């Protein structure tokens, strides 16, 4: 797993360049937001189950057809699988927040799930909506703690964009 620092250095190394002013500014921003990223992740980790539960309830309130007969989350097993997946996305989003880099999401979550979701016929729209609801729930909690909410956006928006590119 890479972080913002190793990704930046790798990019400059591949082009055979020294770190320039832009690179230094990027590094400063990474370190300047470090405490806020750690605090945001601490908030998430302290109540992850409740965050997933709240986002799941909101998703199924918006899309009740998902839990009706014939819906993707109709059975208890499928309902639990949806919440398990949301917890999985949340956990990896915290890794990406700490690293300030989305590579871990691509490597560990998105690349493999494309094939799985396509083969199982998992509806992508509700998946993306669930991710966005989780982001909104977390943004609210992070804002209450006085932490800049932009830290939360990047990993959740990256997952939403990537899932939106899947054709089912």
SSE arrangement:
Elements: H1 4-14, H2 21-32, H3 34-46, H4 48-62, H5 76-99, H6 103-120, H7 124-144, H8 150-164
Helix pairs in contact: 3-5, 4-5, 4-7, 5-6, 5-8, 6-8, 7-8
- The 3D shape can be described as globular
Radius of gyration (CA) equals 18 Å
Q: Kindly state the number of beta strands.
A: 0
Class by SSE composition: mainly alpha
- Beta-sheet strand percentage? under 5%
Any descriptors?
transport; electron transport; 0% strand; mainly alpha; 168 residues; photosynthesis; Globin-like
In short:
With 168 residues, the chain is mainly alpha-helical.
Notes on the protein architecture:
This protein has 2 domains: 1-32, no CATH class; 34-164, Globin-like, CATH 1.10.490.20. Helix content is 77%, strand content 0%. The protein is built from 8 helices and no strands. α4 (48-62) crosses α5 (76-99) and α7 runs antiparallel to α8 (150-164). The protein starts with a helix and ends with a helix. The mean pLDDT is 93.
